[in-house]
Design a protein that fits this description.
Length: about 500
């Protein structure tokens, strides 16, 4: 195989593996360094005694044609399942369909409360909050204060561990742009089959694809193809130091040995990237990187001796009386995830900070907590549980607090000096990207190595990468003139 120097890729998640896969297609040699023993990052699939479960559910739906083509290229068509979505919100001991179903919502909320929600929405349209700085401002302007308090506040604060008025409005604008009460009602009355696929808001999609054995099947298969083409995928390969001069990265220290390369692609958390640079970055850059915060996550997987527990793919738990944030029913994602059809495997998701009480709780206690909370919301009894496992995922979500944009700008300006280093993916860019956006940043990074000039920061920023894409983007995007000027 023709090579032109090693491309060293830090991280074996969707972004890192995509970069390596694309490089091997171009005849380049890649080395993927994954510090964990399992590939896929937060998009991995865990196998516990034959029961497979995700770290959160991962839908395969995208509006980026290049990513869609890559998925189909890696996995055979028979390995993708087409799934009809069913998800609900558990609120005040009742279940509400999400996306919204009008009569279900009216029955659950009551006519009086629904009327007050309508009046609150009208008030928000007449007197919107300006300036729109926080998540609370953003949602209130589009749904009204009453519906914000009903369906957004408690769950969002449980996810992020901070008040909604401390979360940047940019998070909502990036993740759920286009979503409003009018959009939700339109979606409730007009079947999605009548919608232009390009205009469907991603959070409202009613069908998606899913690998038969979970998303980990995608990354395991991709790693096999990378290795078959002569490149390397190394697990348990933690980067200890990143050696650089004034404008280039030269090598990495990995398990005590030096790994040299001509180009470097990093999907490790930006905070860690800056911490590992040697010589060290200036103090103001290290301080900015230290200010980038993360929300951590753990899954308590419970195996129940019940054939059917509930019909949903997942349920959002908007109940402040339990710590549980969301429940996945993996059997309803794919029957192949559960080896015994008379049993069910549920993933109970808890949002936490590394080192807090939930994170440090022993596995046995977390399993008991999961049993109690499952019984408390009436979905199953503790006695139904016959097995359990716990998986912790540090730095699952980059936090968009009031100061993250300033911190990120400082870090970006400093990293721009390195001509052979690119950052990709969710944690690599400290952006709440979906896996398709993360993969696309990696694809563009490879094109840059091959001679292109693409700005990775435009992905999922201001154009069609948002949730409300209005036109399908070609696989050869142009770099805006302003971006080109910044690089010259």
């Amino acid at each position: 195989m023709k090579t032109a120097g090693n491309v060293i890729i830090i991280g074996g998640g969707p972004a890192g593996l995509t970069a390596a896969y694309e490089l091997t297609k171009a005849g380049r040699h890649a080395v993927v360094l994954e510090k964990d023993e399992v590939l896929g990052g937060i998009a991995r699939t865990v196998n516990h005694r034959g029961y497979r479960f995700d770290i959160g559910g991962h839908r395969f739906f995208t509006k980026v044609p290049a990513v869609e083509a890559l998925w189909r290229e890696v996995l055979a068509e028979g390995e993708f399942l087409r799934r009809q979505r069913l998800s609900r919100i558990y609120y005040r001991k009742k279940f509400f369909h999400y996306p919204l179903r009008t009569w279900n919502a009216l029955r659950g909320l009551g006519l009086v409360n629904s009327a007050l929600i309508g009046l609150s929405y009208c008030r928000a349209q007449l007197f919107p909050r300006r300036p729109e700085r926080t998540f609370e401002d953003w949602v209130t302007n589009r749904f009204g204060a009453r519906l914000y308090r009903t369906f957004f506040k408690s769950y969002t604060e449980k996810v992020w561990g901070m008040p909604c008025h401390q979360i940047s409005a940019e998070w909502a604008a990036q993740r759920i742009r286009g979503l409003s009460l009018v959009a939700a009602l339109r979606n409730a009355f007009v079947p999605q089959s009548n919608h232009d696929r390009r205009a469907v808001i991603k959070t409202l999609i009613d069908a998606f694809d899913y690998p038969r054995l979970g998303p980990g099947q995608m990354w395991e298969t991709m790693a096999e193809l990378i290795s078959h083409r002569g490149s390397e995928v190394r697990c348990n390969a933690a980067v200890g130091a990143i050696h650089c001069d004034s404008d280039r990265v030269e090598a990495l220290t990995v398990n005590g040995a030096l790994v040299a390369g001509t180009h470097f692609i990093s999907s490790m958390p930006l905070r860690e990237l800056i911490e590992k640079l040697t010589p060290t970055a200036p103090a103001e850059v290290r301080e900015a990187a230290a200010g980038l915060r993360y929300r951590d996550f753990l899954t308590v997987a419970l195996v129940l001796n019940k054939r059917d527990v509930f019909p949903d793919n997942w349920i959002y738990i908007h109940d402040p009386d339990v710590k549980l944030g969301r429940i996945q029913n993996f059997k309803n994602w794919s029957p192949a995830m559960v080896p015994d059809p008379s049993q069910t495997c549920l993933g109970l998701e808890y949002f936490c900070f590394e080192g807090d009480g939930l994170w440090t709780m022993p596995d046995a206690e977390l399993i008991e907590l999961g049993k109690r909370e499952l019984a408390a919301i009436g979905l199953a009894q503790a006695g139904d549980v016959v097995d359990g496992a716990v998986v912790r995922m540090p730095k699952a979500y980059p936090v968009y607090d009031a100061h993250y944009t300033e911190h990120l700008a400082v870090v970006r300006r400093y990293l721009a000096r390195f001509t052979n280093l690119q950052v990709v993916g969710r944690n690599g860019m400290h952006r709440y990207n979906n896996q398709d956006h993360s993969m696309y940043t990696a694809m563009l990074a490879v094109r840059n190595i091959l001679g292109g000039q693409y700005d990775l920061w435009n992905v999922n920023a201001e154009q069609e990468y948002h949730e409300t894409v209005t036109r399908l983007e070609s696989t050869q995007p142009r770099v805006p003139a302003a971006v080109t000027a910044e690089r010259s």
